[in-house]
Amino acid sequence: MIKGSCCCGAVKFELISEPSMMGTCHCSRCRKAGASTIVFVKKEQLNWVQGKEQVALYQPTPPYKYGRCFCKICGSSLGEILSEEDSFPIAANALDTEFGLKNQFHEFVSEKPSWYEICDDAEQSEGHPPSS
Question: What Rg value do the Cα atoms of the chain yield, rounded?
């Protein structure tokens, strides 16, 4: 069981198994949301412990389509944790329990600021990674 929470503890959840993948997005939106490193989970993996009602959704205007969730109290970024999709990204920083994944990709490296240095061997893409 992998436990997760926001900074203030109002939002708590568990993953019944390890996420399927981890990656880092360098686009300006993910950087500003404070959740560039994400893990992908399946909807059936996520169990709410408390505070789902404390999660707010920021829905951007087109051309952007992916909403970002955060704790209403402390502002911790939670990725797309309210998604109804079968698989969705959540912020890796919201996980409290260690897990065995390593970063597998960097996307939108064309938007990466010059002060950030990528220090791993994960695949890099100018935009979204190519589908496998």
Answer: 14
Cα–Cα distance measured from residue 107 to residue 45, given in angstroms and rounded to the nearest whole number: 25
Tens digit of each residue's pLDDT (9 = 90 or more) over 74-87: 999 999 999 999 99
Query: How many independent structural domains does the chain possess?
Result: 1
DSSP β-bridge partners for residue 4: 13, 95
Answer yes or no: is 75 within a domain: yes
pTM as predicted: 0.87
Confidence label for 35 from pLDDT (cuts 50, 70 and 90):
low
Residues for the chain: how many in total? 132
Has residue 67 been placed in a domain? yes
Is residue 14 situated within a structural domain?
A: yes
Which candidate, 98, 117, 123, 120, places its Cα nearest to that of 4? 98
Q: Which domain holds residue 118?
A: 2-124
| Tokens at 125, concatenated | 């893409």
Pairing of strands 37-42, 87-91: antiparallel
Tell whether 130 is covered by a domain: no
